[in-house]
Write a structure and sequence with these properties.
368 residues; 9-stranded mixed sheet; 7-stranded mixed sheet
Amino acid sequence: MQLASLRSRQGHVPSALALVVLALSPAVRAAGKHHVLKATKDTVQWGWLDPKEPPKLRIASGDTVSIETWMHAKDQFQPGISMEKILELRKSNPGGAFHSLTGPIYVEGAEPGDTLEIRILKIVPKGHGGNYNLPGKDFPTIGALAPEFPEGHIAFFDVDPKRKFVEFKPGIEIPLRPFPGTLAVGMDPDDPAPRKGDAKDDKLAPVNTVRPWKNGSNMDLNELVVGSTLFVPVFLKGGLIWTGDSHCAQGNGEVNLTALECSFEEIELQPIVRKDLQLKWPRVETKTHYILLGFDEDLNKAMANAVRETVDFLVATRGLDRYEAYALVSMAVDCRVTQVVDVRKGVHCMVPKSLFTRPAAARGKKKV
């Protein structure tokens, strides 16, 4: 089925490898309508993924959408804010995260069990960004070295989209590399994270936006820049795309709690419903790498999850047996700590495309 529908909608049939990851295609980008979703009090939600929140926009598979995002706490994290105000805002949303998320966006035809391929086509940051850490004396577990930094600290920086750098201090420049800290589809009803109001029996009770999970969410993956594609399993009808927690730069680990937190005038996405692809966890493709993700509250388990995903990916797409795939990961794949501050830690394993000198179709699959 799916190949026929993909051919009629996108003008080509995916290759064998593209059934797992599909490269950017100008023909697909040109297809469909373009939509705009501005950030407003109605379209931005604060700190929760609520599956019962009405969609703010409905689009077709293959359409493009430009989304505006806000700074944290519905745009209240702005230059001049005090640490006392940050703490007040965090406490005013009990159990919820600080993030502002625009959405949800309903994609016609997306059903549980499908995969959404979400292409990042354009990002235009707004004019400033900020970073803060919470006082370690009050929050000794939030941040890699929280007890060593007992006081809170806040700094804001000018962001010029036309420049390649943000000045940290005279003589220190941070490369400007904007990406969505949070890019999510609707929540997984089986996510074991705590629910709003401490609900125990309602699988559709809202989940806060702190923990990354199978639906993507707060991945803080700094490789999700323009030209990258997220493949994420669908759990709820319509997919229900959210984005926010926008970042203008971030080091792997995000060690003090925050990145260079900013907001976007526009992030242009192209979601495509993939009926031919079923995933358990999100995957990412960039121009140079395939990226496999793992999350868990225990960093060692997050690493194991990411490595297992990478092994499974290589077995499925390159015809290796599991021992060969495991060895290749050890010799040639770079597994990095994505973040350690979102309760669930993240690891991402980067498989260089340059490893593969023959098309996947030319390799005979071996029995696993």
